[in-house]
């Protein structure tokens, strides 16, 4: 026979107490009173145990879900910069594109120029510090709604959402380039890294992440072929003169 005990609420408590009182009141045999007390006590104990078990299961499930959230968040972060990693960055951009087919956006792909030289001359620890501070500053330069990620090595991606006017395209590219002119790393030896930046416009240059990335990456390499430290837009190859 299968038995199921539900958590004991106030009505259950009254029921058990009522059973106990009725049991004792109706009994004329004083020798059966201890036995009846024991039976009622067992019923109360089982009810309390069932409630305790339910509470324990609830607490365990809560902490499991919280731990799962922490692990998922860590899995989506770049360990060095705390920005979104490559997988998370691509996912966030793809999700935005799928849910906002009629909006405009800018995809920036940027490489730190001559980063290998930084590692070779200043050491990998200093190179890591450059990337770490660069990630922090880039996140601060962008709106909270924009997507900022480190996708590997010295490559970063920024996706600016909901850019309503085309006149803003060049302004944002210029602002990002000027950012590197003001950026310095190092307590004793000051270092100002430069960057090559390629830009693609959504949806003009592509309606999928893959198309946009290919376009921005192509623009990026046009900058590198022309001496690095600059910005180029895909398609029109607008090599913007920076102030």
TrEMBL record:
Ranges for domain GGDEF: 103-236
UniProt KW Transmembrane keyword: yes
InterPro entries xref list: DGC-Regulatory_Protein, GGDEF_dom, Nucleotide_cyclase, Rev_trsase/Diguanyl_cyclase
SMART domains in the record: GGDEF
Keyword annotations of the record: Membrane, Transmembrane, Transmembrane helix
Keyword Membrane recorded: yes
Highest taxon of the lineage: Bacteria
Residue spans crossing the bilayer: 39-59
PANTHER family xrefs: DIGUANYLATE CYCLASE DGCT-RELATED, GGDEF DOMAIN-CONTAINING PROTEIN
Protein name: GGDEF domain-containing protein
